Amino acid sequence: MNKFYTQTLFKLETEIDKLEIEADCPIQRIETVINIIIECLSELKKNILKSGFKNTEEEIHFFKHQKPVIVSKLIYYNAIL
What we know:
The chain is mainly alpha-helical. 89% of the residues lie in helices and 0% in strands.
């Protein structure tokens, strides 16, 4: 799970950075970033439903520390839209 999460987060941050540089229209850029974040959360959910967690500690760590990193980005971009 940690490897998939790390790869997903890296991909998300890379795409956001690329859009920050390339996009001309700020509103369109933010909407695109929001869609990318939602897609990222969907991928994580699919992976969790498919693989599950190894144990309770891994599940707690995911929901307490890892998922909030991505959700906070979604909250931020929704707030500035």
